[in-house]
Design a protein that fits this description.
The chain has 92 residues and is mainly alpha-helical. 85% of the residues lie in helices and 0% in strands. It has a domain of 60 residues.
């Protein structure tokens, strides 16, 4: 395998990684947004005296944290690909 072939493979993999990280970021933001909406609905139910809403509140907080964490990790992955592409080995 020549160095040109290896360079093309590396470029393709880094772009694929960037796109996958971007998709994961969007998915994490959507999950966090839906959980945020659920949190507000459950808070309203708790204020109205629904005793069964406590477990739903805990579950909504969990999903919000997972979505936010997923978005944060994938955003860092996107930044990693960007810095890799701009690194000292990048062709000019």
């Amino acid at each position: 395998m020549s160095s040109t072939d290896l360079s093309l493979t590396t470029d393709s993999l880094s772009m694929l990684t960037f796109l996958a990280s971007g998709l994961a970021f969007v998915l994490g933001v959507v999950i966090a947004g839906l959980a945020w909406t659920q949190l507000h609905q459950v808070e309203t139910a708790l204020r109205l005296g629904n005793a069964f809403a406590e477990s739903e509140y805990t579950q909504a907080r969990l999903w919000f944290g997972l979505g936010l964490g997923f978005a944060a990790v994938s955003f860092v992955g996107m930044l990693g690909v960007i810095f890799y592409r701009l690194g000292p080995h990048a062709e000019e």
